[in-house]
Structures are given as C-alpha cells and as structure tokens.
Amino acid sequence: MKPIQKRCAIIQCPKCDYFQLVYLGTKSHRCAFCESTIMMKRSRVKILHISKSPRDASMVLMKLKQERARPK
Ligand SMILES: [Zn+2]
Questions:
Q1: For residue 3, is it within any domain?
Q2: Any idea what the CATH number is for the domain that residue 41 is in?
Q3: Residue 1 counted as domain residue
Q4: Structural domain boundaries, residue 58
C-alpha cells in the first residue's frame, strides 16, 4: 500500500500575515497566531506555495520565515 501523500499549501493569514501550513482540500483553517478562522475558499487567502508533501512544505515554510526575519 502506498502512503497517502497529502498535498500541502502554504498560506498567509489575511489578518496577521502569519505563514502557515494547511492541507489542500481543507475548508477552513484556524490561524496558529491570531486564532482567526481562515476560509480557504475566499480569494483573500494568499497561497504562497503548493507542495507534494508536508516535508517539502515545511522546508519552504522555514525559508519564508527566515526571509521575513531578515532585517532590511
Ligand atoms: Zn492570523
């Protein structure tokens, strides 16, 4: 049996701009930072990246967070 690979997306919370990982197909997601509910069907949600696997997605997420943390 093949392991089920869920596709992941990296989204940005419309309220607080916090980057986070969600599984594709998820209808709503609660922001890990500001705890607001993000409706995935709304176009305001910014999808920054789509990955084949959670591992890949978390690597991209780490990079995005590092880039953001870098001082100007
Ligand atoms: Zn948020």
A1: no
A2: 3.90.820
A3: no
A4: 8-69
Asked if the structure places residue 35 within a domain, the reply is yes
Contacts 24+ apart (CB under 8 A), 39-48: 40/11, 42/14, 44/14, 45/11, 45/12, 45/14, 46/11, 46/12, 46/14, 47/9, 47/10, 47/11, 48/10, 48/11, 48/12, 48/19
36 C-alpha to center of ligand 1: Å?
A: 6
Is pTM beyond 0.85? Reply is: no
Query: Ligand 1 center to residue 13 CA distance, Å?
Result: 5
Distance 43 CA to ligand 1 centre (A): 16
Per-residue pLDDT tens digits for 3-39: 666 789 999 999 999 999 999 888 999 999 999 999 9
